[in-house]
Design goal:
The complex is a heterodimer of chains A (173) and B (402).
Chain A: H1 8-12, H2 16-38, H3 41-57, H4 68-86, H5 93-107, H6 110-121, H7 124-135, H8 140-147, H9 151-170
Chain B: H1 6-9, H2 15-26, H3 31-40, E1 50-51, H4 72-75, H5 80-86, H6 90-95, E2 102-109, E3 113-124, E4 139-149, E5 168-174, H7 184-187, E6 188-196, E7 199-206, E8 217-223, E9 232-234, E10 241-243, E11 251-256, H8 265-279, H9 294-304, H10 311-314, E12 316-325, E13 332-338, E14 345-351, H11 352-355, E15 362-369, E16 377-384, E17 390-396, H12 398-401
Antiparallel strand pairs in B: 1-6, 2-3, 3-4, 4-7, 5-8, 6-7, 8-11, 9-10, 12-17, 13-14, 15-16, 16-17
The chains are: A mainly alpha (173), B alpha+beta (402).
């Protein structure tokens, strides 16, 4: 059913030190991805911790090392959804807004703060593709793989999200 | 398009999160971690490609009658529950194992394909993938379809370049509601898809339609990316939908067993009204507006076929609006235009990183029509010239171009 055999090589080629280095290099992108789903730092910490351990356990299934980033991100997304499923309620918007405002308030220009706020107001359906593609710079193809959707679906969501953002941000122009 | 670094918009990694990551990295060789790997390895599943349309919300409660649970084409196909696991949807897999799930196993053969409806499940919170921004809660209905070739050749795997070369449009339909309008695009939230052993499986997610239980509910499959209304006959008197016998191609049509006692005429009408409102709403989908006139419908249809690539074939570029723009240090461009004939004007500031085109691409920024007609159209476009500059231009219909 799953091409386990064909996946062994890449994982075996990466030792603990290499794995650690790759994870640390990816940490910020992982955090942004997790935050865009969970909108809560404590949950992000849990999700990232779980994802790192899961990725290490599943390393043997990684088909090709160049897909490491997208592969780990996909695992992280699954961990995030696991946490969401365990929640009784989703994080209220006010709660995550307070979380977001603190780190951003000093360094951010008002425009970027506003952009960040508007991104986080997007439904997750649009928010995650936006973050993965535009914030983290993953290609449409990579984003599609991470979200397990088609490239056409990614483009569709990006287009629609852009329109929503344009509409909301354009109001002040 | 210039990409933002994460640090530009998103917060840095907070210390507690970083500590959690370091802690995990320290534990990589803990016996528990390694032991887990060995136990789990045989059932690791990689997610396959999935696709979800943007869509309407989900409503209603489970209302399907229980049918035969035997068969499954001599165990040829995955069960709906197994199919759900293939796309990592554990909730849905569990839902298909509940007593109220409907396991159908009905095949229809066409020249090139065999289409099989494997089962249907519905209810609240039955999927891991119901979009969180759905307006009407977390209830949904799922149908699982299997599609295979009659010549025995495998369907293209979702990872292959051939995937998508043949597309299927699978959709729920409702007696009394025209298929061209009431289909997966308006009733659904999308689908997941994967190929296993040469068989293509599709998990359709759509609104829980049990409020329509006093009508016939259908699942149709036609070849192509959109609903081909010519594949089916819609009897406007009875509202019944049937296969068009003269249709040259795939037009599978299944009926769903529904417990008629679950019909809710009032809720059904409210649902129809909502879809009508969405159908007539602006592209952003945020607000409804009155029923469109024929001219507006024509305009809408016209614009739906306009892209940055083909706009020059349909509308005339207004040279006086053409501007070469360079983003400011914050990544914004500003543009303004005004047509002397009063057909339109605009003065806007645009954040390129998010709203601009890719390098070499032309996008449509927006459009308006002074008279609600194609002739009165003014369409804003922006092209990334690939050298750090952008070209803004308005394309207009006959009235605007004069």
């Amino acid at each position: 059913m799953i091409a386990i055999e064909g996946c062994k090589k890449a994982g075996k080629q990466m030792d603990k030190e290499q794995f650690t280095a790759r994870i640390l290099a990816l940490e910020k992108r992982m955090y942004h991805t997790a935050f865009s789903i969970l909108r809560d730092n404590e949950d992000c910490a849990d999700a990232m911790q779980n994802a790192v351990l899961a990725a290490w356990r599943k390393l043997g299934t990684l088909r090709r090392p160049e897909f490491f980033d997208t592969w780990v991100t996909r695992i992280l997304i699954n961990e995030c959804y696991q946490i969401i499923r365990g929640r009784k309620d989703t994080v209220p918007y006010e709660e995550y807004e307070a979380v977001c405002a603190e780190p951003a308030s000093e360094a951010y220009s008002p425009e970027r703060q506003e952009l960040f706020d508007e991104i986080m107001r997007l439904g997750e359906h649009y928010r995650l593709p936006i973050v993965l593609h535009y914030v983290e710079g993953y290609s449409v193809k990579e984003t599609a793989k991470m979200l397990a959707i088609t490239q056409a679906a990614v483009k569709q969501r990006l287009l629609r999200a852009r329109r929503i953002l344009k509409e909301r941000l354009g109001g002040r122009s | 398009m210039r990409k933002l670094n994460g640090k530009d918009v998103f917060p840095e990694v907070p210390a507690p999160v970083h500590r959690a990551v370091l802690d995990a990295l320290d534990r990589l060789e803990d016996p528990g971690v390694i032991g887990t790997e060995e136990r789990k390895e045989n059932r690791i599943m990689l997610p396959k490609k999935k696709n979800r349309y943007t869509a309407a919300a989900v409503v209603g409660a489970a209302a399907l009658a229980v049918c035969s649970v035997t068969g499954y084409a001599a165990l040829k196909y995955l069960t709906p529950s197994q199919a759900a696991l293939e796309v990592n949807d554990h909730k849905l897999a569990a839902a298909f194992q509940r007593e109220d799930a409907v396991l159908i196993d009905e095949s229809q053969k066409y020249d090139d394909y065999i289409i099989t409806l494997l089962g249907v499940a519905s209810g609240a919170d039955i999927s891991d993938y119901i979009p969180s921004d759905m307006a009407l809660g977390d209830k949904a209905m799922y149908a699982v379809l299997a599609m295979e070739r009659t010549d025995g050749k495998p369907m293209p795997d979702t990872d292959s370049d051939e995937y998508g070369s043949v597309s299927f449009f699978a959709s729920p339909y409702i007696q009394g509601l025209a298929p061209g309008k009431f289909n997966i695009y308006t009733l659904g939230t999308g689908y997941s898809e994967f190929v296993e052993d040469g068989i293509q499986y599709r998990l359709l997610q759509f609104d829980d339609l049990s409020v329509f239980a006093d009508r016939i509910l259908y699942i149709g499959v036609n070849e192509g990316a959109t609903c081909d209304v010519s594949a089916y006959l819609y009897d406007e008197t009875t509202g019944k939908i049937s296969k068009n016998p003269d249709y040259d191609g795939l037009n599978a049509l299944f009926t769903l067993p529904i417990d008629a006692s679950c019909a809710d005429e009032e809720a059904a009408q409210a649902y129809i009204d909502r879809i009508n409102a969405e159908w007539n709403s602006s592209d952003s989908g945020s607000e409804s507006r009155p029923e469109m006139t024929d001219e507006e419908k024509e305009l809408d249809a016209f614009m739906s076929g306009i892209t940055g690539e083909n706009i020059g074939e349909h509308l005339e570029r207004v040279e006086q609006t053409v501007q070469t723009l360079t983003p400011d240090s914050d990544g914004y461009i500003e543009y303004s235009w005004h047509l002397e004939n009063g057909a339109g004007s605009e003065n806007a500031r645009l954040y390129l990183d998010w709203l601009g085109p890719e390098a070499g691409e032309t996008i449509i920024l927006g459009w308006s029509s002074s008279g609600g007609t194609i002739e009165g159209l003014c369409v804003e476009t922006l092209t990334d010239n690939g050298d750090g500059t952008y070209t803004f231009a308005v394309y207009a219909g006959q009235d605007g171009a004069q």
